[in-house]
Amino acid sequence: MAENRRWWALVVIALAQLMVVLDMTIVNIALPSAQADLNMSDGNRQWVITAYTLAFGGLLLLGGRIADLAGRRTTFMIGLLGFAAASALGGAANGQGMLFGARALQGVFAALLAPSALSLLATTFTDPKDRGRAFGVFGAIVGAGAAIGLLAGGFLTEYLDWRWCLYVNVPIALLAFAGAWALLAPGERHPDAHLDVPGALLGSGGMLALVYGFSEAESRGWGDALVLTLLFGGLALLALFGLWQTRARVPLLPMTVVKDRQRVGAFLTVLLVTVGMFGVFLFLTYYMQGVLGYSPVRTGLAYLPLTAGMIVGSTQIAARLLNKVPPRTLMVPGLLLAAGALALIAQVGVEPAYASHILPGMIMLGLGMGTAMMTSVSLATGSVAPRDSGAASATFNTAQQVGGSIGTALLNTIAASVTSRYLTAHGGPGTDRRALQAEATVHGFNVATWWAMGALLLAALIAGVVVDAPRAPTPRGPEAAPEPVETRTG
What's the 3-state SS for the chain? Predict the structure, then answer.
């Protein structure tokens, strides 16, 4: 692929990945409007989010292996068309069931699209210098996609209609499809990467059960019988999945992908980072709209410093240093800076605190997360055999998606329980209930944010101990000679 052609291909891949990532948050700000328009109950409204995360998180490993089997470009393009169709269906929904089904279909096609996009990136840019720049852009999108979704959701909801939070995907997906058709190389199929049907059922079933269990924990509580059954059942299925992968002739997730020390460090780091981050995004949105009284657009604009920080951290810090210093010297400081940002944000009160706490916290958070996430993306896809690139990419995306689901459910449960206890302890005759509710809500958010900071500190510890490569690994391109099935670990 010619030099200019490769960089235009990066635009196509990045556009598709942005669409997938921001769709996890773009409907958050639009949800109240959609709920009123379609007469959703408070108990059912969560399915607008959960239907997407269930399908996306549960089917990613299967999608990654399909990309290896059918060819990454083909899978990428099918995913784009399917995502566009599902988005149009959701935008035209005339009832809650139709909207929930469309969101689930979006998740199905996102599970095809995301791993093929990341593996296309890994096999297109193999030169260390170019790869650093390309992964800098991609890392910025992975890190900033959630915040961009909140910004876009605010503008579309306030000035158009909540349905445009779904319709907007159609032109984006079609533009990316045209670019993929014109710019991306046909890609290599790996006929020996047969679909592992038992592994697909066990792995997807286990992930679906876990994501569903964590999603239901927010409303039902952690001691609920259904939640416990789903969580323990999901863990049991994943344990069987791991056992089967050691015996399958052509496993869905080759053990070489998860035996490599650097990739394991990247996967665990991303898992813990998203555990902390997705819940904090939700808290900040509620804080700015519910406590400070911001409009959807003002809330979205308030996230711009976070997005700018992530772009700078990815493209100007990590991308420039990735091939010059050990990866953990970027990951650990980045994660510690992000943890410090959460410590600052966790001290807000009911009084306006955007300029004093939220703004500096967002800048620190963006710089730290952009640096750490871009480096993690590079580690997760490095030195993997081309035939297993889709599986490695899917595992990275799975860690990100499942971490977000776990974090949202866990931190929301912590915030809700702390808020409830605060109301009980401080309520009484003559109490201003409205003021007390605001204080209790902010206190709950603060406690949950401290827990999120703990997740980032644990991620920094894992990155410092597990990731020990002197430089980020560089994968082979699709034109290179095939690598042996067993890749070097360590």
Answer: CCHHHHHHHHHHHHHHHHHHHHCCCHHHHHHHHHHHHHCCCCCCCCHHHHHHHHHHHHHHHHHHHHHHHHCHHHHHHHHHHHHHHHHHHHHCCCCHHHHHHHHHHHHHHHHHHHHHHHHHHHHHCCCHHHHHHHHHHHHHHHHHHHHHHHHHHHHHHHHCCCCHHHHCHHHHHHHHHHHHHHHCCCCCCCCCCCCCHHHHHHHHHHHHHHHHHHHHHHHHCCCCHHHHHHHHHHHHHHHHHHHHHCCCCCCCCCHHHHHCHHHHHHHHHHHHHHHHHHHHHHHHHHHHHHHCCCCHHHHHHHCHHHHHHHHHHHHHHHHHHCCCCCCHHHHHHHHHHHHHHHHHHCCCCCCCCHHHHHHHHHHHHHHHHHHHHHHHHHHHHCCCCHHHHHHHHHHHHHHHHHHHHHHHHHHHHHHHHHHHHHHHHHCCCCCCHHHHHHHHHHHHHHHHHHHHHHHHHHHHHHHHHHCCCCCCCCCCCCCCCCCCCCCCCC
